[in-house]
Amino acid sequence: MTDQEKQEMVVTPWDVSGNIDYDKLIEQFGVQRMTQSIVDRIAKHAGYKHLQLRRGVYLSHRDTDWWLSEYEKGNKVGLYTGRGPSGHVHLGHLLPWFFCKYLQDAFDAELYFQMTDDEKFLQRDDLTLEQAIEFTYDNALDIIACGFNPEKTHIFSDSDHIQHLYKLGLKVAKRTTFSTVRAVFGFNNSDNIGAIWHPALQMMVCFLQSEREGENIPCLIPAAIDQDPYWRITRDIAEKMGYYKPAQIHAKFLPGLDEGGKMSSSQPDSAIFTTDSPKKAAQKVMRAFTGGRDTVEEQKKLGGRPDICNVYAYYYFMFEDDDQKLVDREAICKSGELMCGTCKKQLAERVKAFLTDFQEKREKARKVLDDFLLKPVVK
Ligand code: TYM
Q1: What does the DSSP assignment read for 174-204?
Q2: Quick check: 274 and 302 in contact, CB under 8 A?
Q3: Ligand 1: which of 83, 138, 235 to mutate, most ligand atoms within 8 Å of CB?
Q4: 10 Å Cβ neighbour count for 115?
Q5: CATH tag, 17-253
Q6: Which atom of ligand 1 is nearest to the CA of 262?
Q7: pLDDT-derived band of residue 204, with 50, 70 and 90 as boundaries?
Q8: How far is the CA of 94 from the centre of ligand 1 (A)?
Q9: Whose CA is nearest to atom 14 of ligand 1?
Q10: pLDDT digits over 3-23, tens only?
Q11: Domain map of the chain by residue range?
Q12: Which of 25, 32, 303, 310 has its CA 20 to 30 A from that of 192?
C-alpha cells in the first residue's frame, strides 16, 4: 500500500481505512453533530455520564433529541444494534455494545440485536454459511458478557430466525429500488443478488419491535458511523410504511494497533480479540503504534504525541475511567517524563485484567444463551 492509499479515508459498512476525518464524515454523510444538550439529557436519565459521552466518542446522530423527547413524554422507546459474525469479536465492537448496555439500563428499553450471518456469507468468499452461523452463536456470548438484560434483549440470526423477519423484510424490500441501493452501497453487475437483497433485512429491524408489539415505538440505533448508510434509506421509507424514522447515535472508531484506520478483524495482528489469551493480547499491545519519538533522548526532550498515539487512544476510549488520571497521563507523556515502553506495559496489564474478567463472563454466558434468543410473539 502506498502512503497516499494508507491515508485516504474510506468509510463504508464493509470497509473502513485510512486517516479518518470526522468533520468531513459528518458533512459527507449529512448527519447532525452531537450536542451538549443530548449528552446531558442521556446522562440525566442514566444517573451518570458514561465515559464515552464524557470523551466525545459519540460524534454525531440523527434525531436522538427526538427519541429522548419521546421518552421524556412518557412513551416507550427501543434500541437496535447488530453484528456481522465473520470472526471473533474485537474491542472495537465492544465499544458501541457497552454504550448500548448503558442506554438499555437508563431507558429500560428492549434491545433487538441482529446477527447478519447472511450478510457476511454473501459478502465474503472465504466464509461458508455454516461458519457464519457458528460465529453468530459464538459472538452472542460476547454480547451477553456485556451485561444486557435477558428479559429485554433479543438476539437473532438472520438465517436461523428468518421466520420472524421475512415478512417485514419483504415489505421493506418492495419499497427499496435497486437504483437506491446501488447509489448508496455502490453495488454493480457482478455483485450477487443476495448481497443486494441483504440491506432490506438490516433495515427492517428498525421496525421489528413496533411490528411485534403492534404499536409505533421510537427506535434508536447505537453503532459506529460506518453503518449509517443503511438508515439513510430506512429513514426515507419509514413514514410511507407507517413507522417512525429510526434515530441513530454514531460512535467514532477504536483504532487498531497499527497506525491509522480502525480496529478491524481483517487485520488480526492489529486487533485485540475477546478470545485472545491475555498473554497474547499483552504481546500485541507491546507492539502497538505509539506517538513516541525515535530515541529516548528525543522523547525526553520533545515529549510524546498522544494525539496520534493508539496506546493513548485505548486509555481514552476504554481503559482509563478516571478523567483526572487521563489528563495526568497526557501531561507526563507530552513533557517527556513517560516513556512509551512503560505506558504500553501499564496498558497491557489493564488489557490482561479486562480479558480475564470478560472471558469468565463469556464462559458463563453459554448457560444462558437460550434466554437471549428471539422468541415468537405471544399474542
Ligand atoms: P460489524 O460486525 O462490522 O460491527 C459491529 C458493530 O461494531 C462497530 N464497530 C466498531 N466500533 C468502534 N470501533 C471499531 N473499530 C469498530 N469496528 C466495528 C460497528 O459500527 C457495529 O456497530 N452489518 C453490521 C451488523 C449489523 C448492525 C446492525 C450494526 C446489523 N444490524 C445495526 C449496527 C447496527 C456489521 O457487519 O457490523
Answers
A1: HT--HHHHHHHH---TTS-HHHHHHHHHHHH
A2: no
A3: 83
A4: 26
A5: 3.40.50.620
A6: 15
A7: very high
A8: 9
A9: 92
A10: 555 578 888 888 888 888 899
A11: 17-253, 268-364
A12: 25
Tell me what pLDDT residue 6 has: 56
CA-to-CA distance for 319 and 342, rounded, in angstroms? Answer: 15
d(CA 168, CA 204): 6
Backbone angles phi, psi at 10, to 5 degrees: -125, 125
**16 conformational bin, left if phi > 0, alpha if psi -120 to 50, beta if neither:** beta
Q: Residue 123 C-alpha to ligand 1 middle, in angstroms?
A: 15
| Ligand 1 atom index nearest CA of 256 | 15
Average pLDDT over all residues of the chain:
95
Q: Which atom of ligand 1 is nearest to the CA of 13?
A: 23
Topology, domain 268-364: Tyrosyl-Transfer RNA Synthetase (1.10.240)
More confident residue, 265 or 30: 30
- If you take atom 18 of ligand 1, which residue's CA is the nearest one? 93
The residue type of 278 is P
pLDDT given for residue 27 in this prediction:
93
Distance 335 CA to ligand 1 centre (A): 37
State the number of CA atoms in the 13 A half-sphere of 186 facing the CB: 7
Residues with CB under 6 Å of ligand 1 are 13, 80-84, 92-93, 95-96, 114, 116, 119, 202, 221, 223-224, 226-227, 251, 253-254, 262-263
The residue to mutate among 61, 227, 317, having the most atoms of ligand 1 within 8 angstroms of its beta carbon, is 227
Residue nearest (by alpha carbon) to ligand 1 atom 34: 81
Structure confidence by residue, pLDDT tens digits, 108-127? 999 999 999 999 999 999 99
342-371 pLDDT, tens digit each = 999 999 999 999 999 999 999 999 999 999
pLDDT at 2 over 80: no
- Check if 17-253 and 268-364 are the same fold: no
Question: Above 90 in pLDDT, residue 234?
Answer: yes
Write the burial class of residue 367 (CB in 10 Å: 0-12 exposed, 13-18 middle, 19+ buried). exposed
**Quick check: 207 pLDDT over 70?**
yes
